[in-house]
Amino acid sequence: MSSVNSSAVSYAKTQSVGNATESGDRIVWVNLSLAFLPLATPVSDAKVLTGRQKPLTEVAIIVAEIETRDGFQGIGFSYSKRAGGQGIYAHACEIADALIGEDPNDIDKIYTKLLWAGASVGRSGMAVQAISPFDIALWDMKARRAQLPLAKLLGAHRDSVQCYNTSGGFLHTPLDQVIKNVAISRENGIGGIKLKVGQPNTAEDLRRLTAVRQTLGDDFPLMVDANQQWDRETAIRMGRKMEQFNLVWIEEPLDAYDVEGHAALTAALDTPIATGEMLTSFREHEQLILGNASDFVQPDAPRVGGITPFLQIMDLAARHGRKLAPHFAMEIHIHLAAAYPIEPWLEHFEWLNPLFNEQLELRDGRMLISDRHGLGFSLSEQARRWTTLTHSVGKRP
Ligand SMILES: [Mg+2]
Fold first, then answer.
1. Is 262 a catalytic residue?
2. Quick one: which of 157, 269, 289, 336 is 20 to 30 A from 37 by CA?
3. Is residue 327 annotated as a catalytic residue, yes or no?
């Protein structure tokens, strides 16, 4: 480890030449960990019912912890469902030493450096999902240093975000249990309910949707999510049949990369279209936004490479009048959604709760921004127990 430390010190000196921030703080320690979070029940969406994927039994979490010479800390995470967690972790371990000696405030510079460190395997997909934990940790640290919640550092438009529940409406869940889950979610203060659809049997989708709409009443916010499993013909037929349900949106009706198909559907239906969770770069979202492919954009900060590219997507989406509904990872996205100019929706998933000592609060259909600094989370002992691999570079201050 001593060779790492001495090279880190000399690197810091090199980088200070010509910088305005010569007396600035420096990153001296980076720790990566890979944990597997088990799910209580195997989870199925339309991708499972069409035979393309196995039920989801665990979520891989790749966590970065960063510390500086002056004692500041930040944490960030990426994730994968089914395959990919080991690969993201391995790539992150390979590029982690590029952070040592850098000023943690220079997030964009560090982002570019990390991107080029692994550029031969691309600027999207797993290559950038390995950068996400670092980038998110640096934004967490920057807000903690400013003694602000991240939403306030970015410039918040609101101190709470309307939120909807997804986890109660998966396709492995029998309809009577879905109805019970809806009641529990409403008692807990949720502001909307999302139901999974996209089964091979479209009549069954409509039967479940009819029952849930009757349970909720005509006006309670309700969304559906087909997880990319319709073809264009099925999507327009189902979209027309679903107009009567007063849906907030129809999510992922088509393949995630079918920009033209989504654009045609968006133009044809009154019900808004939402998509974007599967995209893994700013460039992919740019095609979606400039292609008029949806009413709601659904970026996912860990998937697109972190908060830095997510902010670029927000900026473009806002300039084109799109609504925002970030995918998963509410612990990160509550801050980003709060900083979006147009009223956004936040996706509520309780799955990651055991990873953290702190929890987000729901009230009157909205999730509240806490007054904790940064993202406002610290890793739990349970997260440490689920950790299978760790790798660190540098030396803790
Ligand atoms: Mg979805």
1. no
2. 336
3. yes
